[in-house]
Amino acid sequence: MEIRRPRWPRTRAGQRRLVQAVMAGCVLALLPATWLRVSTADRLRTTADVPRTEVAVVFGAGLWQGEPSPYLAHRLDAAAELYRTGRIEVVLVTGDNSREDYDEPDAMRAYLTKHGVPDARIVSDYAGFDTWDSCVRAKKIFGVDRAVLISQGFHIRRAVALCEAAGVDSYGVGVAAKHDVTWYYGGAREVFAAGKAALDAVLRPDPRFLGPAEPGVARALAAGR
After folding, report:
1. Angle formed by the axes of helices 181-203 and 12-39, to 10°?
2. Measured between alpha carbons, how far is 128 from 109 in angstroms, rounded to an integer?
3. pLDDT tens by residue, 94-149
4. Any idea which of 12-16, 63-67, 68-72, 153-157 has the lowest mean pLDDT?
5. pLDDT score for 20
6. DSSP secondary-structure letter at 99?
7. CB 32 within 8 A of CB 194
8. Which among 192, 95, 106, 212 has a CA at the least distance from the CA of 151?
């Protein structure tokens, strides 16, 4: 069976319509990314000037041989710094624990305790399978109404926008990262992830796993008072 290749239109009108269609497609593809940038413009801070908030949320970013990846370690370092400086009281670590041999939240907890955050001030969310799930669960399961979110710069805008859509008043801290292959991949991925984020914000689907409310955050806050 012969497959015909698409042909460039022969007429100027046809060529003009094709160019306009391509341009319209590019604009539509970039609209979600533009929404993320505009909607979070005033919500990004640094570890030095982020408002004092009871809870910080750290999103999982992969493990290397059971230990936090360098990207995840940078996020956890920022959380530990915020705790030491008194800008936060509790850290909610949210990540993937869908397999017995892969446990992001426990690895994150172990890292934080080694870096000065008391175990009693750390709460684990084992069903943070993606950013939307983590944000919805922070609100509905752990009762978080306001939080500092910690991630890399290429991801933090999406995290803030989604948590805001989930009902969590959020500020984002985008930690620095080496501009390596992972960084460029993450930045490119965000262009496509922005589309899903926009759909999640509009449709507000339930996370993959919801479950009953958990008092972990409230208990951790009470333990320090």
Report:
1. 90
2. 14
3. 999 988 889 999 999 999 999 999 999 999 999 999 999 999 999 999 999 999 99
4. 12-16
5. 55
6. B
7. yes
8. 95
Written as six digits, the tokens of 8 are: 């460039």
148 DSSP β-pair partners? 56, 171
Report CA 119 to chain centroid distance, whole Å: 23
Sequence-ordered alpha helix ranges (H) in the chain: 12-39, 70-84, 104-114, 131-140, 153-165, 181-203, 216-223
Task: Assess contact for 112 and 91: CB atoms under 8 A.
Answer: yes
Q: Please, what sign has the CA dihedral across residues 111, 113, 116, 117?
A: positive
Token code pair at residue 68 = 């936090």
Neighbours of 2 (CB within 10 A): 3
The conformation of residue 126, written as its DSSP 8-state character, comes to T
What mean pLDDT is reported for the chain?
Answer: 86
Residue 171 pLDDT: 97
